Amino acid sequence: MVQTYIDNPLLYKGLKFDLRIYALVAGCDPLRVYIYNEGLVRFATEKYEPVNSENIDNMYVHLTNYAINKDNPKYVFNESLENLSLGHKKSLA
Questions:
Q1: End-to-end CA distance of the chain
Q2: pLDDT along the chain (93 residues), means of 10
Q3: Rounded to the nearest 10 degrees, how much is the dihedral formed by the CA atoms of 77, 81, 86, 92?
Q4: Which pLDDT belongs to residue 46?
Q5: Does residue 76 contact residue 3 with C-beta atoms inside 8 Å?
Q6: pLDDT value for 74
Q7: Beta bridge partners of 20
Q8: Cis before 73 (ω within 30)
Q9: CA nearest 85: which of 24, 13, 6?
Q10: Are 2 and 39 in contact (CB under 8 A)?
């Protein structure tokens, strides 16, 4: 897993997000990498604002973790197999 905190993040509709793309390194010489054709996108549930003394404790703004955001009343669960683009946790496809 590779991750880093970005001070000026790319936003989608004003929300922080993270992408999970799964890859398998099957060999190094020669290099063989298989990338799974599916991934995951997770969104924060509150509009992003740069960190300041008033919002530093608002985890819904700064973190995309499902375990945190699912407790926010604004969290949208996707229960539709027909429309996987709904909600705060989406299929990358």
A1: 21
A2: 76 92 95 92 94 91 92 89 78 79
A3: 110
A4: 95
A5: no
A6: 94
A7: 40
A8: no
A9: 13
A10: no
**3-class SS at 71?**
coil
CA pair distance 69, 80, nearest whole angstrom: 19
Contact 92, 69 (CB under 8 A): no
| Residues 89, 78, 60: CA angle, nearest 5 degrees | 45
- Tell me the C-alpha distance between 11 and 2, whole Å: 19
Closest CA to 63 of 21, 20, 16: 16
Torsion-angle region of 87 (φ positive above 0: left; ψ -120 to 50: alpha; else: beta): left
Q: Say how far apart CA 15 and CA 42 lie, in whole Å.
A: 10
Alpha-carbon torsion angle 43, 47, 49, 52, nearest 10: -90
| Phi, psi at 71, each rounded to 5° | -85, -5
